Amino acid sequence: MIKLARSQDYQIDRPVHQHRMLIDYLRMMVIGGTGPSERLHAVFLDHDRVMICDTPLGQARNGALSFRMRELFEKALSAGANCMIVAHNHPSGQCRPSSYDISATKRLKEIAWALDIELLDHLIFTTSSVYSMRAGGDL
Questions:
Q1: pLDDT tens, 47-90?
Q2: Residue 120's beta-bridge partner residues?
Q3: Is the pTM of the predicted complex or chain greater than 0.90?
Q4: DSSP-assigned beta bridge partners for residue 122
């Protein structure tokens, strides 16, 4: 079960991408703002899958988004997270993951596993769609 702010519960037996409130929140975090820029956002959860905190991690204006994994995991560890969900947007409107998205997600999963943190999902947003890398078999 995933619990978000205001104690709304979501059964974990459904894929994370089916949790409408979480999807809407992450969409707002990565699509909101001014101009067409790529953004990365992470949500951290405890062992009961209750949201502890979240944070923006990167933004790009010309080309690919870059961020330091060290920063992501420092925040996860300092929050005491047991799991996390990362999300980013594709301003191009193409919702499918790029080869870079797939390789970066595999690397994220490996590092998370080594730190005893579960990467629940990596979501990719466009203004009209969301792609779950877990549901798509890329995680």
A1: 888 788 888 887 665 556 667 788 899 999 999 999 999 999 88
A2: none
A3: no
A4: 86
Tokens of 43: 């949500």
Question: What does each C-alpha distance from 107 to 14, 47, 98, 122, 138 come to in angstroms?
Answer: 24, 22, 14, 12, 12
Domains, the chain:
2-132 (3.40.140.10)
> Residues 121-136: what's their mean pLDDT?
88
Dump strand ranges (E) for 15-113: 38-45, 51-60, 83-89
Element (H, E) at 125: strand 118-125
Strand partners, 123: 87, 132
Rounded Cα distance, 114 and 13, in Å: 24
What is residue 35's DSSP assignment?
A: S
